[in-house]
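Possible race condition, two jobs.
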Amino acid sequence: MDLVDESLHRTLTYIDVVTKHGATVSRAQLEIFASQPVPAPRTTRSLNLSELMRSHARGYEQEVTPAEDSVAFLFRVGWVRDREGGVRLTELGRAVLSHADRPPLADSEDAPITVTIDPADPLAYARLFDLLSSHGNGLLVDRYLKFDGLADLTSISAVNRVLTSNDDARNRLSLFARAVGASSAELEIRTVPATDLHDRFFIPDDGPVYILGSSLNSIAKRPGVVTPIADAAASAALRGAYADIWGRAAVIPEATPSELEV
């Protein structure tokens, strides 16, 4: 059961917004806002019989109140005032404007999902891959990716690019080239020095970027999370930064058929 209705919620939020931004609102100002928190609409009232008789000579049967325009509303609730030199925002108005200018939050129904990885869950790895597969094409950034992890990635069509370190211990990069050459997946792998990479990400071409709590090699072997970056500006900044790194990274060529036969 809800403790407050929409009207009370709006009024409480108004007080919270105003005070958080260092402004104050008097009881009179609050009552004005609460009584009509948006510009008053146009209203029409039918006249009763006695009113009709009195107004008959004037030739109308309804009483109309014009809608309140935006400027009148701003003055009524005290968000602007007319001073020498022109109209100015009040402290209340500045507080409301700061609140209105805040970055938009994703709708809860459309918000990206955080996946919790529990090693005791036999489907932990499947849950991760289901999350990655639910997006369009994207880039996986994993400095420590190993051959087994790459082999699994070839089954996820959403991951069509992999950025990893150029560490070739145990012929790691040669194995990568063979894996890509033997797979029908459209997967491109590029490498950069290990010092250029730190955190692990899945970066879809559109939408939120996901932070992987650990390398794909061990993500289902220890507790962790795959967390979305809900801030659109932050996701865009990361997408741009890694696009630059990708552009200067070295391409691992696919192994040729003759190399695969060796």
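Job #2 (started ~2 s after job #1):
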Amino acid sequence: LPGDTARIEHHELVAGRVAWKKALPTPVIAAPLVAGERVFTLTLDRQVLAFDVQDGRKIWELRRPGEPLTLAKAGVLTSYKDTLIVGQGSRLAGVDPVKGQLRWEASVATPRGTNEVERLADLVGPAVRQGELICARAFQSAVGCVNAERGSALWNRTVGGTNGIGADDQIVVAGDASDRLSAWKLANGDLAWTGDQFQLRKLSEPVVLNKQVLVGDYEGYVHLVDRDTGKTRSRLETDGSPVLTIALLNGTALVATKSGGLFAIKAE
């Protein structure tokens, strides 16, 4: 249960009852990942825990050193082949899912500042995966991509912003602190375009679908932007409340709003 609930529950879908539940030391900041008969969780204090999916038995836990201040936003928890990928501060870490041992670590940003608040650069979910590359945003610091096959940073670009990013096999796109959208080439991080038509519209994280960038704003509009030029193609209205998140499912963009609305958009 991501958010402020410090427990994890496993439900039996057939019987409709709770099979087991576990109390966790601090709140969960990413949706649990189920793989290989295990449930993996990432908590606010950067702990990674693995539980047996059948009985809830804790198999291992991983604690990594880092800055004492942590970010109470969605974190990064995903996978690449047989490696668990987790956000640890401003770094992506590759973890052995069987033993809970660190395989590699790569920085997306270098925290800077004179105090803990200024140095806060935790990775913000959702991260996006394209082939062997996993890209993510470091809070108010940078956007970058890591080669998960090699376990090394490919590129990063200094840019403010607090939301997750979007990507396809050509570009990585993100908004900054003033809601200026920028796109970088996935392969090398070269700037592809910048668009300032949405400044101060409190944008959601973007997604990329069928050569279009979809991004929501505080008035409930979903803007469709040309992936290659950054020019606005059109916009769609939802229910007038802020767009909280946009997720992709089988070629459809699912838009969730603050008022509880759920809208499906197919970009053509």
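The chain has a mean pLDDT of 91.
Logs attached separately.
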